[in-house]
């Protein structure tokens, strides 16, 4: 998989550039809360960043498909770096709230879905090859590494060094990693002729279905993170919250390695539906557990179906979407997850305050069931041609 020239370069740069994906939200919350003593303000600014990213991601993907990766992501990255710097300065200077929200909008809207761009490069290099499945599996594992290491790193820096330190490191990874990725021109997918009549991937029924499923899954992720922190605090083990969240990501990481190492004869559609079923089944125990020590292995099991579901979803997009719209097609999944995470965090917080963390887990389970219902009900839209594989 790594034998092609230039592959290692864009993989390493893409991993570094993706680190802020898991660092910005918690870093912004920790900084603004430390300066304003208001979790409400901190959460609102962080949510503004997430929502503006979710809205802008498909447009960014379309621009990349039309003009190429480097021509689009370099100015966007510089803009995001400037906006994040402005956000930190405005927070330090106690600027009015609207200024923080404005900086948050620009920070989110100029974000680059680097995971989609990395997967687009793999699709270009390994199109029709059996190794593409392994490549997508590897990228899912890389995402989990980011989500295990990023929050722990930014939290340690912000609480033990300086409230700004976590975001400064995230800024360095963002600018350095993304610009290094853009410099890897040898592996960049070529710009295909633009067809004004080609439409948009969201008009493809299968893409609509996958976006709805990923929206529900995003709600699971957003609510699960918040409720798990509250669960640990309720049981007098707030310090264990990081371990509990890491258990989910570790479960997904392990399953991603296993899933990518296998050669599958079952169709993508059936794999996706089955993974969704296991995803919902794996969340069942957490609504019945009231002990932190038991919750950690339960969350590990709950995470086992995440990577197979996401890997298969991106592979389905690669099969269903025309090559000249591939980046935009993948960006729709990122948008769906982004909106889902924002919705899940909001609903999870409200339900936790009203009914307690243990009962609020029922919302996460209900969203997982909704994902299964949508995926199974519309699975006929996920039928894809079987490509001729190359060595």
Automatic annotation (TrEMBL):
<feature type="transmembrane region" description="Helical">
    <location>
        <begin position="272"/>
        <end position="290"/>
    </location>
</feature>
<feature type="transmembrane region" description="Helical">
    <location>
        <begin position="360"/>
        <end position="382"/>
    </location>
</feature>
<feature type="transmembrane region" description="Helical">
    <location>
        <begin position="239"/>
        <end position="260"/>
    </location>
</feature>
<protein>
    <submittedName>
        <fullName>MFS family permease</fullName>
    </submittedName>
</protein>
<dbReference type="GO" id="GO:0005886">
    <property type="term" value="C:plasma membrane"/>
</dbReference>
<feature type="transmembrane region" description="Helical">
    <location>
        <begin position="164"/>
        <end position="183"/>
    </location>
</feature>
<dbReference type="InterPro" id="IPR011701">
    <property type="entry name" value="MFS"/>
</dbReference>
<feature type="transmembrane region" description="Helical">
    <location>
        <begin position="12"/>
        <end position="32"/>
    </location>
</feature>
<feature type="transmembrane region" description="Helical">
    <location>
        <begin position="296"/>
        <end position="317"/>
    </location>
</feature>
<feature type="transmembrane region" description="Helical">
    <location>
        <begin position="100"/>
        <end position="120"/>
    </location>
</feature>
<keyword id="KW-1133">Transmembrane helix</keyword>
<dbReference type="Pfam" id="PF07690">
    <property type="entry name" value="MFS_1"/>
</dbReference>
<feature type="transmembrane region" description="Helical">
    <location>
        <begin position="72"/>
        <end position="94"/>
    </location>
</feature>
<feature type="transmembrane region" description="Helical">
    <location>
        <begin position="204"/>
        <end position="227"/>
    </location>
</feature>
<feature type="transmembrane region" description="Helical">
    <location>
        <begin position="329"/>
        <end position="348"/>
    </location>
</feature>
<keyword id="KW-0812">Transmembrane</keyword>
<feature type="transmembrane region" description="Helical">
    <location>
        <begin position="38"/>
        <end position="60"/>
    </location>
</feature>
<dbReference type="GO" id="GO:0022857">
    <property type="term" value="F:transmembrane transporter activity"/>
</dbReference>
<feature type="domain" description="Major facilitator superfamily (MFS) profile">
    <location>
        <begin position="206"/>
        <end position="391"/>
    </location>
</feature>
<dbReference type="InterPro" id="IPR020846">
    <property type="entry name" value="MFS_dom"/>
</dbReference>
<dbReference type="InterPro" id="IPR036259">
    <property type="entry name" value="MFS_trans_sf"/>
</dbReference>
<keyword id="KW-0472">Membrane</keyword>
């Amino acid at each position: 998989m790594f034998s092609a020239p230039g592959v290692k370069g864009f993989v390493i740069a893409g991993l570094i550039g993706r680190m802020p994906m898991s660092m910005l939200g918690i870093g912004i919350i920790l900084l603004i809360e430390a300066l304003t003593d208001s979790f409400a303000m901190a959460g609102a600014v962080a949510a503004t960043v997430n929502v503006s990213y979710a809205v802008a991601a498909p447009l960014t993907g379309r621009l990349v498909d039309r003009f190429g990766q480097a021509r689009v992501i370099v100015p966007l990255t510089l803009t995001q770096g400037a906006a994040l710097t402005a956000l930190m300065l405005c927070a330090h200077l106690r600027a009015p709230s609207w200024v923080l929200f404005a900086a948050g909008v620009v920070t989110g809207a100029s974000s680059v879905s680097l995971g989609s761009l990395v997967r687009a490069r793999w699709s270009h290099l390994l199109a029709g090859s059996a190794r593409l499945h392994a490549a997508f599996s590897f990228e899912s594992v890389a995402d989990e590494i980011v989500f295990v290491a990023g929050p722990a790193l930014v939290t340690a820096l912000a609480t033990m060094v300086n409230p700004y330190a976590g975001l400064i490191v995230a800024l360095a990874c963002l600018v350095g990693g993304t610009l290094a990725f853009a410099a890897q021109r040898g592996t960049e997918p070529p710009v295909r002729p633009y067809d004004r009549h080609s439409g948009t991937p969201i008009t493809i029924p299968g893409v609509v279905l996958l976006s709805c499923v990923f929206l529900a899954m995003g709600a699971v992720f957003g609510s699960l993170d918040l409720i798990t922190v509250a669960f640990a605090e309720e049981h007098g083990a707030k310090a264990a919250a990081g371990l509990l969240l890491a258990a989910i990501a570790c479960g997904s990481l392990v399953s991603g390695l296993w899933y990518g190492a296998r050669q599958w004869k079952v169709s993508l559609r059936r794999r996706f539906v089955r993974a969704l079923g296991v995803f919902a089944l794996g969340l069942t125990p957490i609504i019945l557990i009231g002990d932190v020590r038991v919750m950690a292995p339960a969350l590990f099991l709950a995470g086992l179906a995440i990577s197979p579901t996401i890997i298969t979803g991106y592979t389905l997009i690669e099969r269903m979407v025309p090559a000249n719209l591939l980046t935009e097609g993948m960006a729709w999944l990122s948008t769906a997850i982004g909106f889902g995470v924002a919705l899940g965090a909001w609903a999870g917080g409200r339900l936790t305050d009203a009914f307690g963390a243990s009962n609020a887990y029922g919302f996460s389970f209900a969203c997982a069931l909704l994902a299964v219902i949508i995926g199974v009900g519309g699975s006929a839209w996920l039928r894809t041609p079987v490509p001729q594989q190359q060595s």
